[in-house]
Amino acid sequence: FKTYQKRASDGGFIDEPELPTLAVDEAIVNAVAHRDYGIRIPIECALYKDGFIVENPGRVNQRDKLLPDRFNLTDVTLDSMPRNSTLIQWLKNMRGDDGRAFVQALSEGTKKMRDEMSRLGLPTPSYETNIKRTFVTLFSQAEEREAAYRAGSATAFPTEYANLFPLKLMTSNGIQESPSIFNKRLKELDRYLIDSLEAKGWFIDRINFGQITAHRKGINLPLPEYVKPYLQFSPAYIFQFKIYGGQMFLCLDYTLEVKSRAYIRDLLKSFTPQDLNGRHAIAKITDWQRGHIVWADIETTLIRFDESGREEFVASAQVIPDLPIALIERNLKVAHIHFDLFREIKKGSLALEPNSSRVRAEKSVASAGELSNSVFPLFVNDLTITLDKSPLTLYRGNEGLLAIHSLAEPVVEFNRHQETPDIRDGITRYGSYESDPKKVELIPICLASLRDGMANLIERLKAGKFKYAGSERTFHTQLTYNSIVTVTSPEQILQECKRLLNEHPEWQGDPGLGRLFLAHTPEDGYSLDDEKSPYYAVKRFLLENGIPSQMVDTPTLQNPDWKDLNLALNISAKCGMTPWVLPNSIPDADFFIGLSYTQSHSQELRRLLGYSTVFNKFGRWEFYSGNTDAFSYDERNTFFAQLTESTLKQIAQSNSLSDS
């Protein structure tokens, strides 16, 4: 909730909350105390621009009167009729952070809500109740109040902040220096920050393109004892220097470092040296140092150390490689360790928290406060750089250095001109915008062991499940196939694609887009960004030959639940079907070009594959162009400029953009 500062009648300013804290507390506590626990749905709280709603199961009960379905606390006085006296007694014993009991005088709660709202000049709480649900609404009148405060030159103090913490640069003479002296030289500051972090007990996990990832030594999240020999979870932060609007900031982000604890000597019992060569690692000679694995066997490993650049042989029992998640999971499977790695990663990274973004922000603010007194100040030549503990404030509108502008979800048009901003609901309820029947021949390719999974997946795409009603009803697309091509190894998938095109050259560049390769590309043994993996090799080959393709991973073949709708959408759209459009044209635009990229980190360089996707002014897809060769991260601006120019030329030459 926001806090407003308004001018007091006797001079100065006073703080005024968006909604009274006591009224919000009472609305929630009343929901817990008086809900019908026989109805097994949760209490839900929702904050809107103009109010706060608490929804709880069951009707409001009163001893001697029948309540209308809609009322407010001005017209009706409520008496407390708890359904569970034991729960009420517990709530009376429990106390909040301020020491106040959750429940005090039973009949006073709703009266306090009414009085607190009236004290701020707000409408009294309103109720809507039926046999299943009760809604309590506290209207904040936020927009009207903010307009009045602005007219009276008052200031709204928001609770929204960026993860940017101001830095101040002072010379030895006490003069504040402009951050512009570090324009295009921010990397020079990284070394000073790294040295200070290490001196204060931080471990540097990686340094990547201006971002420093580090965690406090010895601080790890708890894991089961049987898992500890294999991995550790460390709460970490990503640091990066930024300059905005002539001011310098430290960008601070919470993250989770998932580290393998397995030594190369042990890993090579089930991994090959090729799995480990070229990876980051830490190696111990006299102390632990970062480096890269040049070559490894079960006895010794050749390491190129980052700091010195020297190559030295180290005992493989003293080298821990930095493994990607896929290889950590594989190592756990080899050791027969049953551990839900991905769920625990989500938990450790706070993704399972009900309000994860706020929790992450609070962690960053707390760490910034500690860093400002320990790691900072930094001493750079004759400059002293200090860190502000408070993050940059964000304002809605045009105030402040960085302003917040909300964008409403656009309304999207589906079949028979039905409209809704909810795409998933719209596509499943109304079907695709384009309703002309289309027939798509699938060319399924997979490992022989997963043939039944591929057949079941195709049937699922055709028939649907849950809210998805199948490809014909939802996307007006009939999916067919003659047979499933099977191979014995992932490497053979590309060879089969080449064989099929040699036998059917007419498939290449088919303007009708009536055919799609549905290829299973196993992910085990390949990193997600390996451009030489079967996934990228097959995709590149088919793209260069003008044939749509859709890759499928092993988990989808094993269980397509909740994935079938997106998969069918991808297949239908790639074959020319328009799933939805905008009911009105994009203002002041003739067309829209979307630029995107896929990145890999081969040979320690960030490599990109760029794409350009063109839509007309109504959001209808027109064509796609891109490259199949990776370019370096440093060349991205040049490449995207060339890609945009070539896309514009293609639009001008074809003059084929549709006008609907």
Describe the structure.
With about 650 residues, this protein is α+β, with helices and mostly antiparallel strands. The chain has 18 helices and 33 strands. A seven-stranded antiparallel sheet has the order 10-11-12-13-9-20-19, with helices on both faces. The longest helix is centred in the last third of the chain and has 19 residues, at about 635-655. The radius of gyration is 30 Å and the shape is globular.
Summarize the structure.
With 660 residues, the protein is α+β, with helices and mostly antiparallel strands. It has 18 helices and 33 strands.
Can you tag this structure with a few keywords?
single chain; 660 residues; alpha+beta; 7-stranded antiparallel sheet; 5-stranded antiparallel sheet; 18 helices; 33 strands; globular
The residue ranges in which pLDDT falls below 50 over 5 or more consecutive positions are 153-157, 601-605
Helix share bin? 25-40%
What percentage of amino acids are in beta strands?
25-35%
Query: What's the mean pLDDT score?
Result: 84
Main sheet attributes: strand count, strand direction, barrel closure: 7 strands, antiparallel
Basic shape: globular
What structural class do the secondary elements suggest?
alpha+beta
Strands of the widest sheet, in order across it, are 10-11-12-13-9-20-19
Number of H/I helices: 18
Number of strands: 33
For the record, give the distance between the C-alpha atoms at the N and C termini, rounded to a whole number: 43 Å
Based on CA atoms alone, the radius of gyration comes out at 30 Å
